[in-house]
């Protein structure tokens, strides 16, 4: 690799890292007194897709550029996404003329994804499956998993099984782009995030916050709500995401333990192909570009 690597952005060092194994269950403020639905956000694909689907352009451009730069033994024809959710990314690739497929554990998300494929005249290319236990009939050139979905796998065994399944789903010389938020060991991790999305008369304000981190059991819990506003009603969907945590070292040792993959480059979520990063103890967001051996 003859490009200069930029170091991962380094937030100010803190003297004691917040590794809080006491979980804060305090419900978030609800000043508008919205009716609250205690449900999985993944069971609401229409709202999920609006909140997360607004801007796919940077991810699409990055995935294709990674293919150009790092794929061996042929060009990009077929792409696969484990944990594809509503299929916001595989839809965009289908529209660009690529063959695509995806899987997700959530049948509501898969139905939403396939309905949209159907509406646009594409084959229904998503199926319900566990990303740690699946087989595909046709191998892809590139697979990608961009926003932490991998961390839903709650054990080392499941994570390794996933990498092994992915090695069967991608051809030799093909790529798997795995985007994760690591737990930095030298600085305090970020704790909250808020954003909004609007389409027509539907608007959604989203907030995500850390409920607790237990580095020993490697469980991180995040609260998330969607405040949904439609002309006829407003309500809040509140959920908890339970994710397995990875320090940079833990991620390295997981990938090394799988026979099928070698890490050939690392980037951050700014998706700049010309600016690879070096993962260190302060790094949070990383896209591991792995090549199938
Ligand atoms: C944050 S969403 C990401 C969806 C999609 N990749 C995207 O970028 O919009 C995480 C997805 O992971 C799915 N998921 C969680 N555990 C899974 C598993 N074991 N196998 C397959 N999908 C899973 C959820 O149903 C959800 O759709």
Automatic annotation (TrEMBL):
Keywords (alphabetical) are:
Methyltransferase, Transferase
**Keyword Transferase recorded:** yes
Q: Where is the composition biased (Low complexity)?
A: 9-18
By its UniProt entry, which Pfam families does this protein fall under? Methyltransf_25
Q: Which GO terms describe its molecular function?
A: methyltransferase activity
Q: Which residues form the Methyltransferase domain?
A: 83-174
What processes in GO biological process is this protein linked to?
methylation
Cite the residue spans of the region called Disordered: 1-29
Q: Does the keyword ATP-binding apply?
A: no
Listed name of the protein: Methyltransferase domain protein
Q: Which organism is it from?
A: Rubripirellula amarantea
């Amino acid at each position: 690799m003859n490009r200069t690597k930029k170091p991962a952005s380094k937030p100010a060092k803190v003297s004691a890292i917040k590794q809080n194994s006491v979980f804060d269950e305090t419900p978030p403020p609800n000043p508008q007194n919205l009716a609250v639905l205690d449900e999985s956000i993944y069971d609401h694909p229409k709202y999920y897709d609006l909140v997360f689907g607004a801007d796919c352009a940077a991810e699409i451009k990055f995935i294709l550029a990674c293919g150009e730069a790092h794929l061996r033994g042929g060009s990009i024809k077929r792409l696969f996404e484990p944990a594809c959710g509503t299929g916001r990314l595989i839809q965009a690739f289908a529209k660009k003329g690529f063959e695509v497929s995806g899987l997700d554990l959530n049948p509501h998300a898969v139905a939403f994804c396939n309905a949209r494929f159907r509406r646009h005249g594409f084959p229904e290319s998503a199926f319900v499956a566990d990303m740690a236990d699946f087989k595909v009939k046709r191998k892809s050139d590139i697979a990608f998993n961009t926003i932490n979905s991998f961390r839903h796998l709650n054990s080392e065994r499941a994570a390794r099984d996933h990498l092994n399944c992915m090695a069967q789903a991608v051809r030799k010389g093909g790529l798997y782009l795995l985007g994760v938020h690591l737990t930095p060991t030298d600085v305090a991790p970020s704790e909250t995030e808020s954003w909004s999305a609007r389409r027509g008369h539907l608007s959604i304000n989203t907030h995500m916050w850390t409920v607790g981190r237990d580095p020993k059991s490697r469980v991180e819990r995040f609260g998330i709500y969607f405040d949904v506003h439609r002309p006829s009603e407003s309500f809040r969907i509140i959920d908890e995401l339970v994710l397995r945590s990875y320090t940079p070292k833990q991620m390295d040792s997981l990938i090394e333990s799988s026979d099928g993959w070698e890490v050939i480059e690392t980037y951050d979520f700014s998706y700049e192909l010309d600016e690879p990063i070096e993962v260190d103890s302060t790094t949070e967001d990383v896209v591991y570009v792995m090549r199938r051996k």
